[in-house]
């Protein structure tokens, strides 16, 4: 069993709860944190915030920004080399997905 920790963070003066855990595989470790304050309206002015954080403790991972033609960061690339890295990444992203799904106030499917 893994330990799940909760905390509150602020994003642009809006608070939300996040949940984190350490994913440990043979030769790879990721810490994942995710949360949302759910649906709040259409735009960012309404206060809706969503957060995901991945950090490598060890293993063969690469995290780097994706930039557009003007050099502006528009995303992030995540690469893992090895079976343990694949398993750790799948488990971390699955945890993040569950945390975000649980944080929604309604289902939009």
Strand fraction equals over 45%
Largest sheet: 4 strands, antiparallel
Sequence of strands across the biggest β-sheet: 1-2-3-4
Structural class by SSE content: alpha+beta
Number of helices: 1
Helix content: 10-25%
Q: What is the strand tally?
A: 6
Poorly predicted runs are none
What is the ordering of alpha helices and beta strands?
EEEEEEH
Overall average pLDDT: 91
Radius of gyration: 15 Å
Coarse morphology: globular
Question: Separation of termini?
Answer: 31 Å
List the helices and strands and how they pair.
Blueprint: E1 5-11, E2 14-25, E3 28-36, E4 50-58, E5 61-67, E6 73-80, H1 83-103
Antiparallel strand pairs: 1-2, 2-3, 3-4, 5-6
Short structural summary:
With 109 residues, the chain is an alpha+beta fold.
Tell me about this structure.
There is one protein chain. By secondary structure, the chain is an alpha+beta fold. It has a domain of 73 residues. Helix content is 19%, strand content 48%. The protein contains 1 helix and 6 strands, in the order ββββββα. It has a 4-stranded antiparallel beta sheet, with helices on one face. The longest helix has 21 residues. The relative contact order is 0.22.
Looking at this protein, list some descriptive labels.
single chain, 109 residues, alpha+beta, four-stranded antiparallel β-sheet, two-stranded antiparallel sheet, 48% strand, globular
